Give the backbone structure.
Amino acid sequence: MRIDPDPRRTLGLLLSTYEAAVAQNHRLERAEAELRQLNENLENRVRERTAELVTANESLRAEYAARLRGEERLREQAELLDKASEVIATTDLDGRVRFWNNGAARLLIWDATEMGGRELKEVFSLGELGDSASLAAALASGRDWRGEIRARRREGDSVVLATSVTVLRDGAGRPGGWLMIGADVTERKALEDKFLRAQRLESIG
């Protein structure tokens, strides 16, 4: 093995080697620090994204549960409407039937399948008994209305309904259709007519 006779040169080589090793070690430490920072940033993003997904999942679950509760309430309300003895129907703004309850089917003998999409005026006389213009005027102006209307039964005879017609509005307050609720007062009207005829006969004779 050959030994350099100049000790200063040997010392210089040793120092140069040491400095290179230190510089390499510093580079490795910086690379490790950068790698740790990258891993930490990635873990933070993963945690943030996981938290976002958990929040979104919980929100979707709450929305789904609320929708189920809403649908259940709607079913319960529909069942209550179907159990009512009154005629209950809803229509769009053109008067075409959207909902027709069992009370209407029982009284008028037109079931919901037959009435769906049909115009209400095919069954109901759109005029109050004694005031044919008031209901039409209310419908045209978007106002609620109360009075008596005549409804045709499937068998050909008719009944008199004490009726309320209410405007159905959407969330923005715009008219979207009509709700009609009618109670059968045919017998009461017959008794009233009979009483009035008796009074007229008394006044004549």
User: Anything to note?
Assistant: The CA atoms of residues 68 and 74 lie 10 Å apart.
